[in-house]
């Protein structure tokens, strides 16, 4: 009996070329190995090509180091390789440095962020274009609104699906332009043809500027000033025990749509932590669907939204768990629960970060009926309004769990509810 023939190696030709030691050949083989999830071999090839000066390999090696692929995360070494690639003239490396700067763990958060993002925009890097568009979309001036539309159109033309989704919503509603329903319909039809569902109806007035951004107190239209995201929005105290606060118009319509667009393709049945075992399981207490932002797929726009949320909750982004976006359909709810985690759960997920000290939730759309966030022991019930945030403490100042932080997401009577939740730990949780 003859044995089963060995299938040909699909990377055979790349292996042969890489054997010559040419950096470009090693880089191409490493990229192919990543698609086969052979990460350790890919990491070693990227390292060899990076040391030989290949800027693409330097960026990919840095990304593997950022996320701990084929080893422990090493953000400081990632910065080293990104800075080498940036010095060699690669603006995409600067884009990833800007992403890392937002967390202030591996490098300081300074004005270089603006320069780096602008360089990536000028290099036609779609994620940078989308982030810049959303930034300008938060500004009041007609000139900035026009820049937002121009950038979304540019990103859409470069194949950025999310930019196309945001552009379609603005054209339909006449945000920053006269309403263009026919153009919006054409764009939506193109998106539907490749499997992208329409976004829910989301409308938020342009959020107010919280504080002056420059010494002059004014930023000229058309100027990229991403430090705006650092300004914490004013809170309204709803209860002092438990400590519950509300922030209206925290996120813009574009930011809400961004989170929904990112989550829509990845929704799955929500799970919660079993109080007995500490394991995540599907329970009837929580009947929503959700999608978490994977750090590997996180981009600058998503990271800036999370930074805005964390700063407005008066906590640094590095303390945040990964953002979760939830969808509740009619009849779905999250019954009374508390967000602090049992010790068994903490032990399996960065115990050095401690427990969930504070939670910030942002409603991403208006709900026709139902869906309020209820704090029964405080007698507080907050209605879901697009862009509105709810901030509350899960622990006392001494770190003990506060049982009065009990809260619930009430059932949806009509429509659907989209919600973004960021759980904030006592100490640093993220690697960068």
Automatic annotation (TrEMBL):
The keyword Endoplasmic reticulum applies. Residues 333-352 are annotated as: Disordered. Keywords: Dioxygenase, Endoplasmic reticulum, Glycoprotein, Iron, Metal-binding, Oxidoreductase, Vitamin C. Its cofactor is L-ascorbate. Signal peptide: none annotated. Pfam families: 2OG-FeII_Oxy_3, Sel1. Residues 319-426 form the Fe2OG dioxygenase domain. PANTHER family: PROLYL 4-HYDROXYLASE ALPHA SUBUNIT, TRANSMEMBRANE PROLYL 4-HYDROXYLASE. This is 2OG-Fe(II) oxygenase.
């Amino acid at each position: 009996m003859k044995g089963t023939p060995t299938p040909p190696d699909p990377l055979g030709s790349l292996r042969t070329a890489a054997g010559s030691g040419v950096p470009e050949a090693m880089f191409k083989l490493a990229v192919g190995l990543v698609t086969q999830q052979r990460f350790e071999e890919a990491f070693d090839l990227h390292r060899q090509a990076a040391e030989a000066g290949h800027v693409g390999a330097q960026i990919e090696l840095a990304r593997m180091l950022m996320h701990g692929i084929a080893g422990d995360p090493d953000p400081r070494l990632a910065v080293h390789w990104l800075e080498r690639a940036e010095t060699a003239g690669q603006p995409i490396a600067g884009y990833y440095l800007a992403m890392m700067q937002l967390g202030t763990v591996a490098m300081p958060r300074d004005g270089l962020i603006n320069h780096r993002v602008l360089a990536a925009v000028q290099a036609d890097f779609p994620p940078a274009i989308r982030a810049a568009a959303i930034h300008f979309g938060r500004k009041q001036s007609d000139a900035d609104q026009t820049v937002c539309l121009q950038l979304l159109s540019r990103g859409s033309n470069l194949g950025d699906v999310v930019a196309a989704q945001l552009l379609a919503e603005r054209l339909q509603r006449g945000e920053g332009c006269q309403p263009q329903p026919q153009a919006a319909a054409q764009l939506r039809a193109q998106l539907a043809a490749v499997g992208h569902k329409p976004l829910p109806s989301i409308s938020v007035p342009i959020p107010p500027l919280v504080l002056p951004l420059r010494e002059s107190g004014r930023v000229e239209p058309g100027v990229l000033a991403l430090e705006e995201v650092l300004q914490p929005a004013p809170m309204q105290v709803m209860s002092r025990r438990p400590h519950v606060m509300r922030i209206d118009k925290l996120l813009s319509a574009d930011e809400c749509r961004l989170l929904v667009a990112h989550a829509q393709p990845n929704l799955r049945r929500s799970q919660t932590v079993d109080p007995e075992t500490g394991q995540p399981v599907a329970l009837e207490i929580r009947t929503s669907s959700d999608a978490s932002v994977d750090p590997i797929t996180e981009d600058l726009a998503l990271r800036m939204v999370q930074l805005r949320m964390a700063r407005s909750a008066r906590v640094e982004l590095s303390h945040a768990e990964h953002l979760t976006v939830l969808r509740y359909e009619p009849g779905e709810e999250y019954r009374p629960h508390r967000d602090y985690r049992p010790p068994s759960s903490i032990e399996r997920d960065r115990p050095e970060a401690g427990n969930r000290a504070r939670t910030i939730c942002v409603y991403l759309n208006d709900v026709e009926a139902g869906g309020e966030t209820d704090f029964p022991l405080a007698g507080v019930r907050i209605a879901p309004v697009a862009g509105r945030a709810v901030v509350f403490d899960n622990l006392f100042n001494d770190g003990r769990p506060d049982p009065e932080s009990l809260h619930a997401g009430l059932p949806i009577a009509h429509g659907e509810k989209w919600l973004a939740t960021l759980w904030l730990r006592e100490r640093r949780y993220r690697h960068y």
